[in-house]
């Protein structure tokens, strides 16, 4: 399995926000965590990334227990909704940044950045600063920063929620194409049912820190296990 959670729980102080979550995400799968705001999607993703400790339970990546492993050594790359680009650096340098930190050879950096720019159609933007880009292009640079690291798993936390409706649809298609092209395991968090239905191989529906149902989009739509799933993504029960 690419990513496996076993009986993961998380409390902030005395408040339990994730309750006994177990999940399996296969290699190459596009998994989507969907649920209303506050249900624990980001917390789950951050525990997979190692940005947040688990209160109990186990996280494995490619069958290695990483529960105690620091984020940089987990082989994951996270893309945030806020882009988190460096404003003073060019697009090229934004994408090269993590490779420079690792002291990668100059030629390797150049190859990886150009390859990612090609995949994301950013070849013409490499010399620009983030402020000179459109919202969609900035989001692509944020994705490019993840691609150059060649992670085992891509983690996306509502990456499209800052974009307008038309651009969201366009970026959704881009993400589907990206997944097909590079075939990596991707975990995508959203509160948007349409995004979940169109992008996912496998959906995890969350409510109040509990996985309500897991399955392929059409199966959940046709056979929701409970009223919440039916109301949230299924056909009217
Ligand atoms: P989602 O991403 O689905 O909107 P989150 O994972 O951000 O939900 O949050 C789940 C719950 O945990 C919410 O009730 C939120 O207020 C709480 N929470 C998240 N992070 C913290 C934190 N650092 N400290 C305290 N409570 C938090
Ligand atoms: Mg969130």
TrEMBL record:
Residues 3-233 form the ABC transporter domain. The keyword 4Fe-4S does not apply. Transmembrane segments: none annotated. It is a peripheral membrane protein. It is found in: Cell inner membrane. Keywords: ATP-binding, Cell inner membrane, Cell membrane, Membrane, Nucleotide-binding, Transport. GO terms for cellular component: ATP-binding cassette (ABC) transporter complex, substrate-binding subunit-containing; maltose transport complex. The keyword rRNA-binding does not apply. GO terms for molecular function: ABC-type maltose transporter activity; ATP binding; ATP hydrolysis activity. Belongs to the ABC transporter superfamily. This is Sn-glycerol-3-phosphate ABC transporter ATP-binding protein UgpC. It comes from Roseibium limicola. The gene is ugpC. The chain holds residues 1 to 237 of 354 of the full protein.
């Amino acid at each position: 399995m690419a990513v496996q959670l076993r009986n993961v729980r998380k409390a902030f102080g005395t408040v339990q926000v994730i309750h006994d979550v177990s999940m399996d995400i296969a290699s190459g799968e596009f998994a989507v965590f969907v649920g209303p705001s506050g249900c624990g999607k980001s917390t789950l993703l951050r525990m997979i990334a190692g940005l947040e400790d688990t209160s109990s339970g186990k996280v494995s990546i490619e069958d290695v227990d990483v529960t105690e492993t620091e984020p940089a050594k987990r082989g994951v790359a996270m893309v945030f909704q806020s882009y988190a680009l460096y404003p003073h650096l060019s697009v090229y340098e934004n994408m090269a940044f993590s490779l420079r930190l690792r002291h990668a050879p100059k030629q390797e950096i150049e190859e990886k950045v150009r390859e990612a720019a090609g995949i994301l159609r950013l070849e013409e933007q490499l010399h620009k600063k983030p402020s000179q880009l459109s919202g969609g292009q900035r989001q692509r640079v944020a994705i490019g920063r993840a691609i150059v690291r060649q992670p085992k798993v891509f983690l996306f936390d509502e990456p499209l929620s800052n974009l307008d409706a038309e651009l969201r649809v366009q970026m959704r298609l881009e993400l589907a194409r990206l997944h097909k092209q590079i075939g990596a395991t991707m975990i995508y968090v959203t509160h948007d049912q349409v995004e979940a239905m169109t992008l996912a191989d496998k959906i995890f529906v969350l409510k109040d820190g509990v996985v309500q149902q897991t399955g392929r989009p059409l199966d959940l739509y046709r056979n929701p296990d409970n009223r919440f799933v039916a109301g949230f993504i299924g056909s009217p029960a």
